[in-house]
Amino acid sequence: MFKVNAFYSWQTVRFYDVSTNEQKAKFDHRAAVLACTFGNATQAFTGGLDNGVREYATLDLSTERVSYMGQHGNSVSAMNYSRDQNMLVTGSWDLSLKFWDPRAAPTEIAAHTLPERVYHMDLVNTTLVVAMASRLFHIYDIRKLSEPAQTRESSLKFMTRSLACMIDGKGKIQQIATPVHHASSRKKLNMHILGYAIGSVEGRIGVEYFDPAPEVQDQKYAFKCHRQTIDDVDHVWPVNSLAFHPVHNTFASAGSDGTVSIWDHKVKKRLRQYPKYSGPIPSVAFNCDGSRLAVGVSYTWDDGEEGAKTAERPAIWVRKTGDEVKVRYLAVFS
Prior knowledge:
The structure is a single chain. This protein has 334 residues and is mostly beta strands. Helices cover 3% and strands 51% of the residues. The protein has two helices and 31 strands. The strands form nine sheets. The chain has a four-stranded antiparallel beta sheet, with no helix packed on it. The C terminus is likely disordered.
């Protein structure tokens, strides 16, 4: 379950013991923080508008030591940590990826130029997905960084607002079937390999698969969400955050409409929509065993300065999860 959790907002990073609802440490930055990730139980990293990459190496909080690892040429917009490779990956608006080893001196071990600004990244095993401006995507094997394994264009028509990888990137195929009275009559419904989900500013989610084979790519799909008709007017909100459940591989989506939904991407169905929160939701995250879901609520500037005048105070909610995050189909056949 959550023990120490990191929350960042504007120029501040705070660490909380969620079990006691107690703030354990607070770190101020010179500029807005755009990215934060854990390395291990006692190590975290941040980056933001000041272009710098920082390590918080003692989250036992006895010393609150902060190390400046290096910087990009522009804002650090995304970061992920590979525990298998002991490596931090950062993406920036300076059109680059950088790779860092916190144990080394110097800590920066490699850099790669990209065709566009980095908006979002996610990492599963050794597969890194990078979402960029102009709806571009690069997919890397972080063990072979000379060039991307795949380059793609988003299946969604508008700017990418969120990205999350499925929990296992090994690409194993699962066949979903309906159980019937005679095994010989089992009907294969679909075939899924593993991949990632993306959300856009126009209330739509796309589900993509890593395997480039045409028969697999034919199965990718997109659907509308975080929309509502009010007084015969269609309102559409951005999908700000996506997070896959670490056990069941269902995923949560959060939007500027203040709602969080749970989806089963295999059967293309929404499992649950939680009661609406008091404001837009810029971020959601499951803990390591999926028993808790953290929900950040704050104004996302979709309505400009006028919206800020009436915005609710920012808040962080941690809710228990239950059967709503579990898959509903009846059988899986290998």
